[in-house]
Amino acid sequence: MSAEENKTIVYRAEELWNTGNLALADEVYATNFLNHDPGAPDVRDLETYRGFIAAVRTGLPDFHVTNEDMIAEGDKVAVRWTASGTHLGELIGIPPTGKQATWTGMTIHRFAGGKIVESWWSRDMLSFLIQIGVVPPPG
Known about the structure:
This protein is α+β, with helices and mostly antiparallel strands. The protein has helices at residues 3-19, 25-28, 46-59, 125-131, and strands at residues 29-36, 64-73, 76-86, 100-112, 115-123.
């Protein structure tokens, strides 16, 4: 697949996260999907990834992500994104705070057979935790 076709699939992943429509996961991710996320080390395959999306959308029902930049080369697409949401449900063991947060991150996706087969994540979790009031701001 071309770099542009791979970018289109990444936009479908954005739609999956923004709508919570888990049926889209089968269109976007390969059945042998492998996830590399230091912020969610137990989320390794497609099934646990679906559960992770559902859990995030339970904790942040208005969760929204925007792909800000995409660079595609070969079988990879790198994405710089911004996410936001209001913490209205339990999330990663944290009771709801009712606070809104916006944070950024980057993801590199690897493609094979027209689907994402592997993803590497980096996100600003500290900023998120400060904004929802779980971690005090520096100083």
